[in-house]
Design brief:
The chain is mainly beta. Helix content is 3%, strand content 47%.
């Protein structure tokens, strides 16, 4: 298990062990499957942001993200930054903001969201858009 905040800033290393491809900027979440779908990273300090599908990740740990391949996805997935995102209950009531997200580094499954109002189980996620993350009331 790791937290999104622990992954951000890690070097992305290619399969051949050469120098880093870049640094992780964020993780893209697929709310429907409840998992991380893509790793986003930036080449150098001012480089372009690139996206790799989760299937391209070999291992992820406290020191680096190692990838199997560096093939970019056919289409760029919609991305909404989950950290700092506003949370709404399905009743329309505000429920704070996302502080961090725990996920399984082997399966990419989201485990829990840590919010300004406490911990939320990941299975309560309903949708994620520009305005807010919508979760089922517990």
């Amino acid at each position: 298990m790791m937290l999104f905040t622990e992954v951000r800033g890690l070097p992305v290393l290619p399969p051949d062990g050469a120098g880093p491809l870049g640094t992780v900027t964020s993780l893209t979440v697929d709310v429907v499957s409840g998992s991380v779908s893509h790793v986003r990273f930036r080449e150098g300090r001012f480089g372009r942001e690139k996206t790799l599908p989760w299937d391209a990740v070999h291992t992820i740990g406290p020191g680096a993200v190692r990838v199997r391949s560096v093939t970019a996805p056919d289409t760029e997935p919609a991305h909404h930054e989950l950290l700092g995102h506003r949370i709404l209950l399905d009743t329309g009531t505000g429920h704070g903001t996302v502080l961090d997200v725990a996920f399984d580094t082997r399966t990419a499954r989201l485990l829990a969201l840590f919010t300004t109002h406490g911990e939320l189980p990941a299975d309560r996620l309903l949708g994620l858009g520009d305005y807010a993350l919508v979760v089922r009331q517990g």
